[in-house]
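Hello,

I think I submitted the flavin-adenine dinucleotide job twice by accident. Can you confirm which output corresponds to this input? Input:
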Amino acid sequence: MKPDLFEAPDYYNLDELLTDEHKLVRDAAREWVKRDVSPIIEEYAQKAEFPKQIIGGLAEIGAFGPYIPMEYGGAGLDQISYGLIMQEIERGDSGVRSTASVQSSLVMYPIWKYGNEAQRNKYLPKLASGEWIGSFGLTEPDHGSNPGGMTTNFKDMGDHYLLNGAKMWISNAPFCEIAVVWAKNEEGRIHGLIVERGMEGFSTPETHNKWSLRASATGELIFDNVKIPKENLLPNKSGLGAPLGCLDSARYGIAWGAIGAAMDCYDTALRYSKERMQFGKPIGQFQLQQKKLAEMITEITKAQLLAWRLGVMRENGTATSAQISMAKRNNVDMAINIAREARQMLGGMGITGEYSIMRHSMNLESVITYEGTHDIHLLITGLDVTGLNAFK
Ligand SMILES: Cc1cc2nc3c(=O)[nH]c(=O)nc-3n(C[C@H](O)[C@H](O)[C@H](O)COP(=O)(O)OP(=O)(O)OC[C@H]3O[C@@H](n4cnc5c(N)ncnc54)[C@H](O)[C@@H]3O)c2cc1C
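Support: Only one job matched these inputs. Its output is below.
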């Protein structure tokens, strides 16, 4: 793979909206990606393996629990810093960002928000340091966009719960130490349970043959009469709103992360357009190529503004789930379109692993599907503006 020469586009001087701390956090993540991710990521994506050696680095840049309070090992940062870290990591690879998103927003967040003090103290510091990697089990083979229909269930056996069922498409599953699993009790109410590796009847087979997010490990979570200690139930929130609250946090991070992937594709195409000569000119001199680049930087700038404003609203507690849906949908769609256009600008070279664009392009096919598909987020916006529910 070519050396990482990335220069971040900032067409509207958005740096002026950031504090010194934001810039420090962002620049540290950017440098780390250049040093520790870019040189190895293509090889790991090609062999479909998560590069476990970067876990310590992810923890050091604050990617595991950026906004979790420091008393629990988190970085204690604000929502904009969280977004910027996700942007920089996904600039390197969406699969690596997925690992960080799951750990922070889907595992640490529910333990912090819905757990008790004993659970916070037991799990959060080890997750923040990367000693333990977690996974989040919501999706099932027959319940993806409609997680409320889940059949994974647990029964109260007096001194413990008995968990049965299966989860599918679970990021980090093959090597997770713990899983936050959403299951129905005997009354059909959804609760979160912390399942630990080593519990009898719990297995995590890996999903193979993915053409997307190849540097992220995906698998199943299978529960065959797993005895769960009662203290592993998250006590402070139940119902579908509990997992959806986690998804709000993760989707917000994705809205920023997608900008990173788009920036990398744009920057690569821009540089290539000035170097690649055809018909005696750099291809960047042709109007058709300039149109592509002009549209890319316009869309990136709009997405940056959307993410920044959403971050401010997240920070002051006013962002709605529907506003988060809009940003996730728009920004991932923006990134996937830019990856496609950028790939074309590189001609044949664009399909090789010499450049990052094809990998981003394939990764974004997962990003546009997970955490609510493109169409589901559109329906959420539709419901929000009309008050009419297309899901029913
Ligand atoms: C690489 C990867 C990693 C993932 N990681 C995790 C994870 O860590 N944890 C986890 O719990 N899940 C995870 N997922 C699962 C992901 O969230 C689901 O794939 C996603 O929610 C879609 O569900 P589905 O694949 O079952 O598609 P389906 O729900 O079957 O949807 C198929 C199509 O039908 C459309 N559709 C569905 N319902 C409607 C409707 N009412 N109106 C109009 N169109 C509709 C969808 O938009 C989609 O286009 C991951 C997925 C992938 C690919």
